[in-house]
Design goal:
Bound molecules: tricarbonodiimidic diamide
Largest sheet: 6 strands, parallel
Low-confidence stretches: none
Number of helices: 9
Radius of gyration: 17 Å
Number of strands: 10
Strand content: 15-25%
Strand order of the largest sheet: 7-4-3-8-9-10
Helix content: 25-40%
Structural class: alpha/beta
Order of helices and strands: EEEHHHHEHEEEHEHEHEH
Length: about 220
Amino acid sequence: MPLVEARPGPLKFEWDSTALLVIDMQRDFLMPGGFGESLGNDVSQLRRTIEPLAALLKAWRAAGLPVIHTREGHLPDLSDCPPAKLHRGAPSMRIGDPGAFGRILIRGEYGHDIIDELQPADGEAVVDKPGKGAFYATNLAEILGDTKTLVVTGVTTEVCVHTTVREANDRGYECLVLADCVGSYFPEFQKVGLEMIAAQGGIFGWVASSPELISALQE
Ligand code: TIU
């Protein structure tokens, strides 16, 4: 049984019941000039995840293991976007407004899609989600089938990654969050967000880094 060094302790799992989740690595969140930046955020804090994630994807695909990508976004008529989400805060651009990369977080627009560096490969599932959590209003649980362990990556650590890990935890999955492959616009949230997952004996799961998992893959 493979074993990965992690916090709060080593995680044992089986490759054939493990899937890689890549959360919301979308242009609107990661590209300079996009929605994330319009909220006043420093996108470089997210962009440092691109290189390690690309390396992980390469090793993961070489091993023939499943990859599931998610994208946060809404239908063009915004019928799946609660007004509370649409009107929250005071961003200079709102969901559905025209942005540098098309209408912000609208399915089918250039900005809604995944960044070039991490484009899904043929056959990999892409789950479109209207919420922060990847299980809410999606068929993710069906896609996962008998999967027991989720390797969780993507952005942002304290928002969509955390919400998804919490949803997964309540649904009985073991989550391994890779610190170098998740990113927050806020360094302090990155640090504390990861601590919150592994605290209390792994209250939401485990935290490791991608080189450790890649080594286990190649053993
Ligand atoms: N994917 C995701 O985390 N959506 C967000 O809106 N994150 C923020 O941190 N704003």
